[in-house]
Each structure stands twice: as C-alpha cells, then as structure tokens.
Amino acid sequence: MNRLLLAAYPEPYRSRQGEEVLACLSEAYPGRSWPPPREVAALVRAGVQARARAVVDDTARPWWLDGIHLAALALAALALVPYLQDVWHWALHIDPGQHAIAFHFSGWYPWAEGPTRIRLLPYGLLPLGCLIALLRGRPWIALPAAAAMIWAGATSHGRTLFGDEGKAGLGYYGLGAPITARDLVLSGALCAACAALALCRPSRLRRRSYRWLAPVVLAMFVAGGLHIISVSPAFQRGLFVLEGAALIAAWVATAATGDHRWLIPVAAFAIVRMQAIVVRPDAFMQSFPDLVVLILLIAPLPALAIAAQRRQGQALAE
C-alpha cells in the first residue's frame, strides 16, 4: 500500500528515490502496510510540492498559459459533476428508475421504463468530452464541446436532444449554490478559456495521460453504480471536501514555488461559484453556513497571492 503514496510524486522522483522512500517506510513502521495519518499527510504534501516544482521548472510554456489550461480543466470537471450518474447510466444502458437525478421526466432513453418522452444524449457528454480533450492538450476539440454547452443551456426548452436543460432542480454544489446547464457563466468561462488555448500553439500545451481519467470513472461508479443522487447530503459533503482539498493543494503548490499560475484556476472557480450564489442566494442545501462557504471561496485568492510573494521574497533572500 505504501506504493500508492508514491503516486503523489512525479515520475522522475519515483524512479530516482522511490525505492529509498519505501525502504525508509518499511524500517520506520515494520509490519505495517500503511504509515500513520500524520506521515501520510506529510508524504502527500511533499509529493504535491515536488510536482509543483517540476511544473515550474518546465519552461516549455509560460505560466499564464498553464494557468488558463488548469482553469479550463477545473471548469470542465465542475460542469461534469452533476451529470456523472447520468453519463454512467447512459453508457451502461441502465434505467435508474426512482434513483434518477432531478429531471422533468423519468423516461430517459429508449430502453427506460415509464413515460415515453425521451432524450437522445446525456448533457454530461459535453463537459466530459471537453475534459478529455483538454487533458490531451487538444483545445480545438474542447472548444466546440464548450460552445455546444452554451447552446444547450441557452436553447434547452422543448428540445429532446439533451432533454430540457440536461437537469432540473437541485444539483451538486459543494462550495456554492447549484450550477445547472442554464447557468451560462460556467459554460461561457469554459468556452473563453478553450478559445484562448486554441489560439495559442497547441504544441505548447501540457498533455496528460489518460490515467488522469481514473478518478472520473471512479466518481461515475460511485454516483451511478451506487445510486447516490445529486441531492444526497453524502455526495454534497463529499464534493465540499474535494473542492476544499483542491484549494489546499493550490495553496501548497504556490507556497512551495512562488509561482502565480495556480491563481488563475482558483480565481475562475471562485467567480463561477460566487456568481451562482449571488443569482440563487436561497439555493443552499444548508449543509454548511452560508458565511463559511463565502469565506472559503474568497479567502484562497489573497492567501495564494501572499504565499507567492512570501516565497519569492525567500528566494531573493537566499
């Protein structure tokens, strides 16, 4: 199990020092397959810092381009989250029945039981396709998918391609109010980021392995295979923890490198989340106090800026 902790580190580090780290863990904690929680947290934190330094040391692209790319990935993932269950059921031809997320009708596809009104595709295929294209560094493929998200959200009523707007009612919202396909700020920001990336030389973009999709498949199984609906408090709190962990990881990376690229995805995330809260201030599930959520959205930006300035000051002093 100790080898799972090494996944937090970049591949060059694993090849050089991976066996040494495993040997040290075996000596320090003999007979244990997993170190204590404090040691796990320290190793993961060091791994995030090592990955961040490796990213900054790669001068093949400017920091702002990498930041826009990270922002587009974050927005595509955020847009996909409400439809994880839907895409899973569509791919496996499953009729979830009463376990479906909040749609205006329960007759989803031709194989579903119940009302005969159907839709041809799940809306979640658009952000999923956008996410995969961005992971592979192909923004010219992600851009049409993001534009189709805007079209689907703006012209949804009465259409059977994606249903009405893909999803009605409450959705997954973690650190903010629900974001559905009708909230065009998210899809518009994603489309703008994809357009900016497409205008640059695609060869300059970072290409990530398909292995990065493993967490997405796992999330689809959790939401679809276990029938955890979008308004489930368990999933809401899980998303809250996930988004909070991502913000902490951005802070750790910024504090370790003094680089500003992680400010861009955090700012994009905060703007989209806060816009949804302003538009629908009464849409919280009340799992968390509203003030706590707003502070968690606002606080990371100055925290990251201060961390970057402090790290740069330390580098100059050295």
UniProtKB/TrEMBL annotation:
TM annotation in the entry: 63-84, 118-135, 140-159, 179-200, 212-229, 235-255, 262-279, 291-308
Keyword Transcription carried by entry: no
Keyword Nucleus: no
Top-level lineage group: Bacteria
Keywords assigned: Membrane, Transmembrane, Transmembrane helix
Name of the featured protein: Integral membrane protein
